[in-house]
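Hi C.,

You asked whether I'd gotten around to modeling the 245-residue construct. I have! Everything is below, sequence then structure, no commentary in between.
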Amino acid sequence: MDSGEAAEVWQAEPGGAPRVWPAGGQPDEAELPRRRALRLGALAAGALALLGVPLGLLWAALAPDTPVVKAPDGAVYAQPQPEQPIAADGWFSLLGLGFGVLAAIALWVLLRRLRGPVGLFAATLGAFGAALVAWQVGRRIGLATFQRLLETAPDGRAFTKPADLRAGGVDLVLGVLPVPHGNLLLPAFGAAVTYTLLAGWSRWPSLRPEPELGAAGLSSVSVVRPAPPAAPEPPAPGAAEPPRD
């Protein structure tokens, strides 16, 4: 720090040792310990996954049921090319993508000290979990009635099939490894892209905003470090010398 430069003395806790930053500078928020950050990230991901319940209910309310007719070998579409399954996929895609974007923004704003790789992982994993929950909740509304009619209704009986996904789901690779695909991944995609953009546009290198002056728990006082005394100048040429003994 240059001589005579103003500085800010910050005291994080009353009675604690003060720390000095350049004038106008402020300390970043303290970073969470790794274990606590991981635990908080897991809780945030779990909370987002639970929000898949109302998301699934909303999807089931918006997505139309598909008219079907009972046939000897099961149920067939009442129309050759019904639009209802396409609408169900479209509603799920729109709701899921919007949920992922809002989830990333919420974690970025509410969990500022979690910003970084842990926050990105929590937003992506939580949005994917919410998509799974929403899919299973939404597709099961009215499913029991459909299966009962499928088993007991006479041939030619018309009824409806509840909404389900055709452009997404979970496939088993080698009969063991579950691999999600299609629009089931859109919420996680929206969360990952949104969180990454927020990090890229952040004006703080640490991604965490600096506390304002006078924030609770922080005190500051401006000090100015005095400049060191200047060295004596050499006598000018021809100046009279002091008398010698």
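If it helps when you're writing up: Residues 1-28, 213-224 have pLDDT under 50 and may be disordered.

Thanks,
B.
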